Task: structure prediction
Amino acid sequence: MTTSSRKLDHIKICLEKPVESECRPFDDLVLIHKALPEIDEADIDTTCSFLGKRLKAPLIIGAMTGGHPDVKEINVRLAEAASELGIALGVGSQRAALEDKSLVDTFSAVRDAAPNIPIIGNIGAVQLKRSGPEVLERLAEMIDADAVAVHLNFLQESIQPEGDKEANGILDAIQSAARGKVPIIIKETGAGIPWEAARDLANAGVKMVDVSGLGGLSWAGVEAYRAAMVGDDELEEMGRLFWSWGIPTPVSIIECKSQGLDVISSGGVRNGLDVAKSLALGAILAETALPMLKPATEDTKAVVKAINPYIRALRISMFLTGCTNVRQLARVPLVVLGRTRVWLDARGFDLRKFSVYRELAK
Ligand SMILES: Cc1cc2nc3c(=O)[nH]c(=O)nc-3n(C[C@H](O)[C@H](O)[C@H](O)COP(=O)(O)O)c2cc1C
Result:
């Protein structure tokens, strides 16, 4: 099985099957309604800067695809929509294009379609270790990227029949990469990053992580379907068992923030209220991936239509919490309920910082 054909399997499964985790950790967070917002809605400004460029909203369409001729159009539509909306975009793993040059244009077409927005390249951490840090410059050049995400996907690799489980030496590879010219973002793919790994990454010179926590797409789930397709019952069972493995996205945001990293919120971000909650926890931006896949198989307009409500709900959340700019969201009072509260408590985080007492406790 080639990297390229595996990518097509993944897309097909993500389009046709329920592949999300059962938990919705963002539902445990409540932004406190400000009955007297004391701002005019017209004064709300959702812009922010990211990787030296200006965005109209703190949003990224997450890394998904490229690497097969059939998916080039998906990438182009995502790019056109991101460009029209003034938000950032990540491409899927560029590994296939390193292996087969004829696939380069399934990635580079993204930059042609979106000349001005921040675009994030992508490669697996195991691939980085094998190729050496120089590969980042090739990847960045391929799409004129503003940064390259190095993804961690050991949950997925564990459930994949051909999974690559050589995780030894990854931190050293990341440390060398962090010293290079190309800005890197360490990105999970649905299982989150705990503070212990965030501490190691920070010590290795990493400045930014994309948590991609539990709460959205489950790669164990996707690989369970693939295992079933090839009749591997035991691996299918493993996929089902580990379907909801990982650190919930809001918990991961707080844990990574505690280590001084810039944090992108992802994994189950499904609307603009989730974006507002992410920023209230201290994330700089939020990212959504899976919900954009189906619209991108239709046309660019469908992707724009799917993203617009995120921006609208973000504006409403900002109005109802009295924020005229997105940075102010980091100070709005917030209550943490349910399993997320238990998680944070068990991990030793002071809940008062994330409650209505936040303003008083400062
Ligand atoms: C079809 C598909 C392909 C993906 N491929 C990649 C990839 O190549 N590299 C990567 O870092 N993440 C990849 N992801 C993971 C997403 O970028 C994101 O981290 C994850 O889906 C969680 O976000 P979500 O719940 O909004 O989908 C992929 C996701 C989907 C749905």
